[in-house]
Design a protein that fits this description.
The protein has 271 residues and is of the alpha/beta class. 27% of the residues lie in helices and 30% in strands. The protein has 2 domains: 126 residues, Translation factors (Elongation Factor Tu (Ef-tu), domain 3, Beta Barrel), CATH 2.40.30; 130 residues, Rossmann fold (3-Layer(aba) Sandwich), CATH 3.40.50.80. It is built from 7 helices and 12 strands. The N terminus is likely disordered. The protein binds flavin-adenine dinucleotide. The site of flavin-adenine dinucleotide has 26 residues, from strand 4, strand 6, helix 3 and strand 12.
């Protein structure tokens, strides 16, 4: 075990890829009725890259019985189960604070369950982050659509847009009380629609987007959420609207009835 741990540390140094950080919770609270914001803070965030809002990360969820030391040892030994993908919502370098927003979808998933039980001093493994999903803003107009799991990427993208950007942003939330303040450009028309049971398919985003009065010019998208919805929107945007692939960020973030590992396997099989 000790040899394996040493080798893992050497491997991390050689590849210059930091192993997972073990982050500690400073604050956990319901941002809205179905969204928990967790603020992580502390020296473990030393060297965390700035400008990664909207990028994704892998969170490694501790077992309920694990102490921080046991968990840290396990990660150092290379065991990174159970992993889930989340989005960097904010990073405040001066305060060394990182926010991640978790959909509170119940205790049927380890990540959601962890967030619902998180308190000051709780801990989690963190690997990443990637860079932001949309890095260039060159379109005549923007189409943003998100269910709750993708509000963080959509909000970060809207916040990064040039202030004269124009377009439409559509948020499908479990309750209209889940509306958030988003610092979007004034030219983005924001719509909130309600879908009260996320375990059931919804056609609302499709209906809305397919009936949009489609403006002239180049469009870029930032769209993510439940896989059935995404599959249908992708077909519409690529085939009916001929949006260039390079202008599309569209991604299935989860799938009804599948845990994340199954969903990722499904996406790989689909190609
Ligand atoms: C690039 C990327 C970025 C992401 N960023 C975020 C983020 O910032 N915040 C966030 O909350 N999610 C985010 N997600 C989605 C998140 O990874 C999944 O929702 C994940 O399945 C949650 O893990 P879990 O352990 O809670 O549930 P799992 O164990 O994966 O699933 C258990 C059950 O819960 C259902 N389920 C999973 N997610 C949801 C949901 N959102 N609503 C209702 N039912 C659900 C599943 O269908 C399954 O039946 C992101 C996904 C990707 C790919």
């Amino acid at each position: 075990m000790a040899l394996q741990s040493t080798l893992q540390k050497i491997a991390n140094k050689v590849t210059k890829r930091a192993g997972p950080r073990v982050l500690s919770v400073k604050k956990a609270y319901y941002l809205t009725p179905n969204m928990i914001r967790i603020t992580f803070a502390g020296p473990e965030l030393e060297g965390f890259p700035t400008g990664c809002e909207g990028g994704n990360c892998k969170l490694i969820i501790p077992e309920p019985y694990e102490t921080k030391d046991l968990f840290t040892n396990r990660l150092e030994n290379g065991d990174r189960s159970v992993r889930r993908t989340y989005t960097v919502r904010h990073y405040r370098k001066d305060a060394q604070e990182l926010d991640i927003d978790f959909v509170a979808h119940g205790d049927n998933g380890p990540a959601s369950r962890w967030a619902m039980n998180a308190r000051e001093g709780s801990f989690i493994g963190f690997a990443g982050p990637s860079g932001p999903k949309v890095t260039h803003f060159e379109a005549d107009w923007y189409l943003v659509a998100a269910d709750p799991s993708a509000i963080p990427v959509a909000a970060a993208t809207l916040e990064a847009m040039p202030r004269d950007a124009k377009g439409v942003a559509l948020f499908e939330v479990t309750s209209l009380d889940d509306k958030q303040e988003i610092n979007a450009p004034d030219g983005i028309d924001i719509h909130w629609i309600e879908h009260t049971d996320p375990s059931k398919n919804s056609n609302a985003q499709n209906k809305f987007i397919r009936s949009l009065d489609w403006p002239e010019g180049r469009v870029q998208t930032c769209i993510a959420g439940e896989s059935h919805v995404i599959r249908s929107l992708r077909a519409f945007l690529q085939h009916d609207r001929q949006v260039a692939k390079k202008d599309l960020y569209i991604s299935g973030y989860w799938k009804i009835g599948l845990i994340e590992d199954e969903h990722q396997a499904f996406k790989r099989a689909e190609g």
